[in-house]
Amino acid sequence: MNGWQLIAVGLVMLLGLLGVLIPGIPGPLIVWAGVLWWATAGRSSLAWQILIGATLVLLLGQALKWLLPARDLRAASTPYRTLFTAGAAGIVGFFVIPVIGCPLGGVGGLYLLERDRLGSHGDAWAATRRVMRAIGLSVLVEQFA
């Protein structure tokens, strides 16, 4: 593998790391594709072992990304309809106020829906924090896997 290919592989991996933070971009899969490119170009046994390890980490991370937050969301007892509606509010917020409107619309919509469902500010705020923790855990698992 020449120097330019190595730089390109590094840029693909960097794009994958940044992709974890941007919704809709499959960051871990892009990093894995960079490792695959590097391993197939290198053709050494160490490269293939690293590819196998990266594949296992990718699969484990994908499983944990869905299992851990689902457990926390069940514990928070927030209905899935509320989560989907809050997600839609985040999408609308993104177009109303670009960039910062997505988290504002999502969290604000979630709080308002929980306030309507639970009735009090304290309960709604606690439920909103539990859901945000569960979603944050999903992002952290994806970032570190």
TrEMBL record:
InterPro entries for this protein: DUF456
Keywords, comma-separated and alphabetical: Membrane, Transmembrane, Transmembrane helix
Name of the featured protein: DUF456 domain-containing protein
Pfam families the UniProt entry points to: DUF456
Keyword Chloroplast: no
Transmembrane annotation, as ranges: 6-39, 46-68, 88-113
